[in-house]
């Protein structure tokens, strides 16, 4: 998780005004749902912001696969692609993904994840029933067309067994609460 933590952070609505929103069926409007800082031994690693599309906000915590959502991650550290891939796979394994699925997803993650530098942003968009689409600096990187992958990937932050319960709580906090 440290590698992923080092990799990911500060959201801005303009990131969802372009391609990510255009790729979401019926996503006329995005609503910021929650955001939080990830720190490791006092070092700020990233800021994550959860966005939901249209009127689906109430489904985020209760029915992750049905929720149209985007997770915006603004990085505070340079992280190589291999570290992002390895940490993502390790976290999905820890949360119950099987070995065969992880083996299938590994080359897909290598394809969609770039090397990132501090100050850069990745947005992952959960496409309900389809998979996930990824953007780096508001440019499309590609999609992984597997709904189970999308569920497992977004669970890294949103599952009750997330490695960072405080960040999960901040992401799932209802607006205005």
Explained architecture:
- The protein has one domain (2-172): 3-Layer(bba) Sandwich (Chalcone isomerase).
- With 177 residues, it is of the alpha+beta class.
- It has helices at residues 2-7, 19-22, 81-94, 99-112, 147-158, 165-172; strands at 30-40, 43-53, 69-75, 121-127, 131-136, 139-144.
- The chain is globular.
- It is 33% helix and 27% strand.
- The protein has a 6-stranded antiparallel beta sheet.
- It has 6 helices and 6 strands.
- Strand 5 (131-136) and strand 6 (139-144) form a beta hairpin.
Write the topology of this structure.
Layout: H1 2-7, H2 19-22, E1 30-40, E2 43-53, E3 69-75, H3 81-94, H4 99-112, E4 121-127, E5 131-136, E6 139-144, H5 147-158, H6 165-172
Antiparallel strand pairs: 1-2, 2-3, 3-4, 4-5, 5-6
Name its key features.
disordered N terminus; 177 residues; 6-stranded antiparallel sheet; alpha+beta; Chalcone isomerase
Order of strands, main sheet, comes to 1-2-3-4-5-6
> Which topology does CATH recognise?
Chalcone isomerase
Helix content: 25-40%
CATH architecture: 3-Layer(bba) Sandwich
Strand content: 25-35%
């Amino acid at each position: 998780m440290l590698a992923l933590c080092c990799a990911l952070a500060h959201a801005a609505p303009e990131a969802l005004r372009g391609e990510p929103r255009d790729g979401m069926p019926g996503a006329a409007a995005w609503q910021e749902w929650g955001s939080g800082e990830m720190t490791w031994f006092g070092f700020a690693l990233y800021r994550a912001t959860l966005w939901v599309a249209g009127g689906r906000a109430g489904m985020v915590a209760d029915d992750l696969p049905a929720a149209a959502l985007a997770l915006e991650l603004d990085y505070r550290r340079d992280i190589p692609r291999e570290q992002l891939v390895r940490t993502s796979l390790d976290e999905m394994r820890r949360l119950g993904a099987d070995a065969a699925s992880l083996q299938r997803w590994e080359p897909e993650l290598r394809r969609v994840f770039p090397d990132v530098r501090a100050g850069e942003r990745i947005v992952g968009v959960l496409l309900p029933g389809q998979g996930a689409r990824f953007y780096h600096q508001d440019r499309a990187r590609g999609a992984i067309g597997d709904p189970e992958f999308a569920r497992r990937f977004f669970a890294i932050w949103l599952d009750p067994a997330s490695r960072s319960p405080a960040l999960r709580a901040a992401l799932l906090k209802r607006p205005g609460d």
